[in-house]
Design goal:
The complex is a heterodimer of chains A (301) and B (353). Chain A is of the alpha/beta class and 301 residues long. Chain A has helices spanning 2-20, 49-57, 91-96, 110-116, 129-143, 147-166, 192-199, 218-224, 233-239, 260-266, 273-286, 290-294, and strands spanning 25-28, 34-37, 44-46, 64-66, 101-105, 121-124, 175-181, 185-186, 203-204, 228-232, 255-258. Residues 292-301 of chain A have low confidence and may be disordered. Chain B is mainly α. Chain B is globular and about 65 Å long. The chains are: A alpha/beta (301), B mainly alpha (353).
């Protein structure tokens, strides 16, 4: 039923594309600028890992001619020129690559410079799930394959649903502490990571009022007694050594520590969010039953 | 130009009775403030300063954990780090006879910072997790040692570049250059090892959030060594204010004295940096405040500067916890704003005089 409806929608989209297939692609980017292109760009530079991933997920990987320093997915981009990071993009090399379009984060400082050098820079904001969905639409439109966006988004949604189904019922509503940096900064309910947790049926120790990634008083975390802790493996190893944190009941067994490469997957708001949700769900499902861990002897400290 | 920032040191050489009273008053005030702030530090939690939350904390079943394991060491640790910085500042200003001398302006802190970043990078490259948040003794001691060596290295570089500490301007310029270069090198390290970047960011802003009992013991041991030792060399510092020649004519073994004091400076800075990262301005401002309220011989200035530094950083820590609770401000940002504001006022007053 849904498959048929999707097919119908796709067909409609294709027809629509075919009908308007002509010289002009018109789109408004997240910086508010309007772009008119005679044809889909053939040479694309991306300056953010999630943008690289979006282009590839939408079938435009072959058109990439350069990516930022941190892009590392999919494997096919690993031989492309590396053009620096968010703060230190290499203007000269980017210009020398003669891209038809540069995709950059809305906050990228280099955007203005590149624009003044005559390059077309499409600014994309991805902070929330809605942003990711919209930016997929924007990039798909740019690539001349607008239908691909809905396909990609449906795939993400399907992965969310599958992942949510794998979270054991006993875990529903349990509060997660998701650490993004050891200061400690946490991913709150207002962040895209928080949105993913909500879709998985999990709670968050950081309420949305505190903003997406607040720097917390370490005591706040100890008091909140999260049911589940998610962090990079490296951060997780140091946690019990922080003053008072050995009293966290979730340590060490109710915790998901991700190695750096997997952890990156979790903190990128892009087309692999569904895969990230799966990784989270699998970890949560693999945690030992709560009763076993709750009898730990860590209360005394 | 900068030398006018401070009352002439000669004022300290002729203590009058009124000065003794002022000194007593200052010490009493500092200890009183330390006690009040320590109590506030015990009370300030994720809900800021609130009476009902405090009562709940004390009566709650987590009282030992929250108060004993988190807030008490954090509060004492903040005081200890501030005391180290205050002492380091006073030693630096006395030793170099330069009122702008400060662990930050002499390349000491930059050297300690670079050493810590190198340890962080080396640790992550080796696959072992070490962070400021890690309390393991070995890691702590390694970090302290690295910070000490780094501080010594940075200071030596500055002194070499300035060809000794005779000319204040030259010394300051050399310190700035060394700080910038060493800072750039640590930036370079973090570009190569992104894992160190996360630790470093935490470290650059300065943080008192993860000071535990192990930090408190390290700081206490440091103070137990540094305070008596600096007190012993205080009279030499007094003699130095009369100039190197006069000091030498008094029969002082200047090279040895300088070596000991430079070592002390590096020890105090290295300890502070290894426990709490780069906390700005406390070392610069604390001795100024002391001299302003109670001009005195170095024996008093050194100890009072330590007490003043402790009070300043503890106050900043309590503020950092309360201002946007349950979120936190980086404590280094607060000290920079407060200390910078104080210096601005001082400069303005000096120029208008």
């Amino acid at each position: 039923m849904t498959a048929r409806r999707t097919f119908a929608a796709l067909l409609l989209c294709f027809v629509a594309t075919a009908a308007t297939a002509g010289p002009a692609i018109v789109l408004r980017d997240d910086g508010g600028a309007e772009h008119r292109l005679a044809a889909p760009p053939q040479r694309i530079v991306t300056l953010l890992p999630s943008l690289t991933e979006s282009v590839c997920a939408l079938g435009g990987c072959a058109r990439l001619v350069g990516v930022d320093r941190y892009s590392n997915w999919p494997d096919s981009i690993k031989d492309l020129p590396r053009l620096g990071g968010l703060e230190d993009a290499q203007v000269e090399r980017i210009v020398a690559l003669k891209p038809d379009v540069v995709l950059a984060a809305k906050s990228a400082r280099v955007a203005e410079r590149l624009q003044s050098l005559g390059l077309r820079v499409v600014l994309v904001e991805s902070q929330t799930h809605a942003d990711v969905r919209r930016s997929l639409g924007l990039i798909a439109q740019l690539l001349g394959t607008p239908a691909a966006a809905e396909r990609a988004w449906s795939a993400i949604e399907a992965e969310f649903q599958n992942a949510a189904a794998r979270v054991p019922p006993a875990r529903r509503g349990q509060k997660v502490y998701f650490e993004v940096a050891s200061d400690p900064y946490a991913a709150g309910a207002a962040s895209f990571i928080g949105e993913t947790l909500i879709k998985l049926g999990l709670g968050n120790v950081v309420p949305p009022e505190l903003g997406p990634f607040p720097r917390l008083n370490p005591e706040y975390v100890v008091r909140a007694q999260p049911d589940i802790i998610v962090a990079s493996q490296q951060a997780l190893q140091s946690m019990a050594g922080r003053p008072g944190w050995s009293a966290l009941k979730a340590l060490p067994r109710q915790a998901c520590g991700f190695v750096e490469a997997r952890y990156e997957l979790l903190i990128r708001p892009g087309p692999r969010m569904g895969e990230a949700a799966s990784a989270l769900a699998d970890c949560v499902a693999g945690l030992p039953a709560k009763t076993a861990a709750a009898t730990g002897t860590k209360d005394g400290q | 130009m900068s030398a006018t920032l401070v009352p002439p040191a000669a004022a300290a050489a002729a203590p009058v009775l009124a000065d003794a009273a002022r000194r007593r008053r200052l010490l009493l005030t500092l200890w009183g403030l330390a006690v009040v702030l320590a109590l506030l530090g015990l009370a300030a939690g994720p809900s800021g300063l609130s009476w009902s939350a405090w009562m709940a904390d004390v009566g709650g079943d987590q009282a030992m954990l929250i108060l004993g394991q988190i807030r008490a060491p954090r509060t004492l640790g903040a005081w200890g780090v501030g005391a180290m910085l205050g002492l380091a500042g006073a030693i630096a200003q006395g030793l170099f006879r330069n009122p702008l001398a400060d662990p930050y302006l002499l390349g000491t802190a930059a050297g300690a910072g670079l050493a810590v970043v190198l340890v962080l990078a080396g640790a992550t490259l080796g696959g072992v997790a070490i962070g400021l948040a890690t309390a393991q003794w070995l890691a702590r001691l390694g970090m302290v040692l690295a910070a000490f060596v780094g501080a010594l290295g940075g200071l030596t570089l500055t002194l070499m570049l300035a060809r000794g500490a005779h000319e204040p301007m030259r010394l300051l310029l050399a310190g700035v250059v060394v700080a910038v270069v060493l800072g750039a090198v640590s930036d370079l390290v973090t570009t190569v090892s992104p894992e160190a970047l996360r630790g470093k960011q935490f470290f650059m802003l300065g943080s008192t959030g993860f000071l535990g009992w192990s930090s408190v013991w390290v700081l206490a041991a440091g103070l137990a060594v540094a305070l008596p030792l600096s007190h012993r060399y205080a009279s030499a510092l007094d003699a130095l204010t009369l100039g190197e020649d006069s000091a030498a004519s008094l029969g002082l073994d200047l090279p040895r004295i300088r070596l000991v004091l430079v070592g002390l400076l590096a020890l105090a800075t290295g300890l502070a940096v290894s426990q709490a990262g780069l906390v700005a301005f406390v070392g610069l401002v604390a001795p100024h405040l002391v001299r302003r309220h109670a001009p005195a011989p170095q024996a008093f200035t050194l100890l009072a500067s330590a007490a003043m530094g402790g009070v300043l950083l503890l106050a900043a820590d309590v503020l950092a916890r309360c201002m946007i609770a349950p979120q936190e401000l980086p404590v280094g940002v607060l000290t920079a704003v407060l200390g910078g504001g104080y210096l601005m006022r001082l400069l303005k007053r000096q120029t208008s005089e």
